[in-house]
Amino acid sequence: MLISGGGTGGHVFPAIAIANALRKIDSAIQIRFIGALGKLEMQKVPEAGYEIDGLWISGFQRDNLLKNVLLPLKVISSLTKAFGIIKKFKPDVMVGVGGYASGPAMYVATKLGIPILIQEQNSFAGVTNKMVAQKAARFCVAYDGMEKFFPKEKIVKTGNPVRANIAFHSNDRIKSFDFFNLSPAKKTVLVIGGSLGARTINESIRDGIEELGKNNIQLIWQTGKVYYEGMKPAGKHPHVHIFDFIREMNLAYDAADVIISRAGAISISELCLIKKPVILVPSPNVAEDHQTKNALSLVEKNAAWMVKDSESRQVLVKRVIELIGNKDAQQKLSENIASLASPNAAELIAKEILNLVK
Fold first, then answer.
1. Whole-prediction pTM value?
2. Which end of the chain lies in a sparser environment, N or C, as judged by fewer CB atoms within 10 Å?
3. Which CATH number fits domain 2-160+343-357: 3.40.50.300, 2.60.40.1120, 3.30.200.20, 3.40.50.2000?
């Protein structure tokens, strides 16, 4: 199997989960990855025990057209390298998880007649996946209504795969409180904005630190590496536990009474499995505003609250305090989000991949 894509944790972690599920079914399966040079997958995939080849590729920059000068050269380079990799590796199936590297790899695979399975995480299909929609053999999706992007007869609803330590977390609050040095007498809010962080969420929390403390609320706060130094001074407060990145996210989830998060597809899939009350703040800086669409799919089922990014600085902390003080709302949100969980998504996708081989 050849798995292509990456760029963010939302693409990389599902890809690794699929690879692990394939290996669990048959340890003799050969698996290789294609990613983008300089991106997260070039670190995380080898750490997970898999080989990866990097393509010199990036996305189209809408905010600075000068940055696109080298893009045609990058595309030619990536297509050429992908062709060489695929011809040498001879995969039975190509799996595309989205991201810059997925496009050239899947395009070459279609030209060489290799079956393609696309794993679309979002409720709104990405540009790369839509480009090869007519050529792909199977689409594994997490949301209803995806037939507006892909041929209906090729769609299988599997849910999104998540990290194993999240899918099978123990919900050990005592261990998590000890790990983060938390007070059992206080309510705990977990703040996460993705692996890179989220400016608006961070600034909203920073500005509301005093108010949260007055309401007996303690924080586990992942700022993201980009924003950590700027937010670090807020960590002087005894009720604030601040990190650039939390590796032990399963323990952070266990400790939380309420979670604040962006609305990336994989984040939402993890949150459904965690079964905790969630306030989603969708990022506005994504294609087709797909995070808002992801969030609304939960809000419409009363499975999450949503705060618009543009209103976050005025509203977010107030909504957190409101939810922390409303046990009935917490219970209802927990029940409804739990009903949307897909704990076996990686295994279901792995079986669809093997069906294509057969």
1. 0.84
2. C
3. 3.40.50.2000
